[in-house]
């Protein structure tokens, strides 16, 4: 087990392979609670060994989707397939799926060892085998010293590890993680995210994580599905999701974005030219399908803007304004600029040196510029 | 100055809140017990009251020692000589034990159902459990006579159903006592169980089923062990008062129903042997202190584990 990233991970893109058979398949899945539709005609394929993240605000249906996979919720319409088998009539205790609960759900009357071995004992595994597997799991999550502790004698991070070990002990084909790191503090969370990725790679189990934390999803996942009101808005790897969001909703959910409404003037050779209401010319290298005269959204991430006091030479994508607010975050400085059009835009600058000569400050007259290949045209 | 007086008042209130329960216990439990204990060491006599005091305040400190030396344990010795007493104790414990088991058997599903009922329905169900307390205990037990007697409601109903052709004799047997105790003490079993089951985390059951448990297995491996504090509390709350129960055996039980509460009553009012009946009471208390102490120990253990 080396710490080097395996080459298989670099080339791991089964979703691009037409011959790849999905490991999990949601087919037109709908879940209704009375009049409320939690999941709406959703279709989705997840592949073996994939680390898949469901991302969305609370109430978007991501947890319901996961609970249907675990068998805690029934499917109102449609079907879920695991390795080609319809899961409809498989009760939760017979699914080759294990779940790590948000609250960890450790059994308070059993010690760490018993908790981890619970599923194995239930399976009817021999005592000596259980002991071996539990020891293996304990070392996997580095909790050997705590084998005899009861859950209430553990810290949040330790409980999280035990819960993870317990859900992995049965070597499921699919591990579901419901906001697994939500209760941990920031530092520990970041550390654990990387550990989760390593673990998933080593074990070769398909992981599906539900989270509302975009950084977490981007850190751990091969692909992310962003959900909104029971529907999937976009499914893509983190890079594509961030750089090529298909809507303002996704763009805004993953990171920060400046959006200006504009009218399409011309489209040619992959370059879309637009004009804002105040008449500023815009050019974007984009494959988004738009037609001349259409209303569209010009979208730029704050870090894609250059902020200068000198007017840039470029003829397009230049916005003049006044520094309204500055947030110094250490690694970044975020400038909130009041544009001459009256709108606000955010630009962020990486602080690469210890000290800046004559830094941009409040009420400075500044220009924001963004190159045509760093901006986006969104239609919705 | 104001601060000091505030601290002083705070201190006094704080101390009082600790000592008040002890004071309560001294006045309403220890003092009567001491009187009964003293009485159990006296000689019976044909007098008013019917005994020769074993000790008198009038004797003064010097006399007290003489009184103590004269203490007679003959009443306790007498309890071992007549089989009636130990048989009563034994029978009381037996009846209390089986009624507790029956109460648990009926109370657990009841509490479980309540805890799993829709959240809005739970207060209503809880109310229904507590409702019988609004009527006098004595009247409720008395009502059972009307139900259980030969021409009572139960027999009429069973005959109407053609389940039986001859009325059953239930009243004035041990069966009636069991029914009476189970009925009367059911809320004491249901309430602690409900309190426990209601706050159990439902995701634990999901986790168990996720790890391969059927619903029944989840119950026995998760719900049942976690409900132990409730089971223990409920059992003690039923067992302890049931051992000393007097009203139920004397109203519903037969002449052969031996229970220590009844023996004690007869000794006191029929035989007018106050010293012997006091001895009976003292032994009963000592018998009950054992389960009470066990109860307290398990409570303390639970608290420690739950920390």
At a glance:
The complex is a heterodimer of chains A (380) and B (307). In chain A, 24% of the residues lie in helices and 33% in strands.
Structure description:
The complex is a heterodimer of chains A (380) and B (307). Chain A is 24% helix and 33% strand. Chain A is an alpha+beta fold. In chain B, 76% of the residues lie in helices and 1% in strands. In chain B, a hairpin with a 6-residue loop joins strand 1 and strand 2 (51-52). The chains are: A alpha+beta (380), B mainly alpha (307).
Fraction in helix of chain A: 10-25%
Count the DSSP helices of chain A. Answer: 9
Structural class of chain B: mainly alpha
Which parts of chain A are unreliable, with pLDDT below 50 for 5 consecutive residues or more?
A: none
Number of strands of chain B: 2
Q: What radius of gyration of chain A results from the CA coordinates? A: 25 Å
Order of helices and strands of chain A: HEEEHEEEHHHEHEHEEHHEEEEEEEEEE
Strand order of the largest sheet of chain A: 6-7-8-3-9-10
Question: Could you list the spans of chain B in which at least 5 consecutive residues all have pLDDT below 50?
Answer: none
Strand content of chain A: 25-35%
Beta-strand proportion of chain B: under 5%
Helical fraction of chain B:
over 70%
Through-space gap between termini of chain A: 46 Å
How are the strands of the biggest sheet of chain B laid out side by side?
1-2
**Cα end-to-end separation of chain B:** 40 Å
**Which word captures the global form of chain B?**
globular
Whole-number mean pLDDT of chain B: 88
- What's the number of helices of chain B? 14
Short descriptors:
heterodimer; A: 380 residues; alpha+beta; 5-stranded antiparallel sheet; 9 helices; 24% helix; globular; B: mainly alpha; 14 helices; 1% strand
Write the layout of secondary structure elements.
The complex is a heterodimer of chains A (380) and B (307).
Chain A: H1 7-10, E1 24-33, E2 36-46, E3 51-55, H2 62-70, E4 77-82, E5 85-86, E6 97-100, H3 112-123, H4 127-140, H5 156-169, E7 174-178, H6 186-203, E8 206-211, H7 214-220, E9 223-228, E10 231-236, H8 238-243, H9 248-253, E11 258-268, E12 271-276, E13 281-285, E14 295-300, E15 306-308, E16 318-328, E17 332-339, E18 344-350, E19 365-369, E20 376-378
Parallel strand pairs in A: 3-8, 3-9, 6-7, 7-8
Antiparallel strand pairs in A: 1-2, 1-4, 4-5, 9-10, 11-12, 11-14, 12-13, 14-20, 15-19, 16-17, 16-19, 17-18
Helix pairs in contact in A: 3-4, 3-5, 4-5
Chain B: H1 2-40, E1 43-44, E2 51-52, H2 60-70, H3 74-81, H4 83-116, H5 122-130, H6 137-148, H7 153-160, H8 174-198, H9 202-210, H10 215-226, H11 228-243, H12 247-252, H13 260-270, H14 274-305
Antiparallel strand pairs in B: 1-2
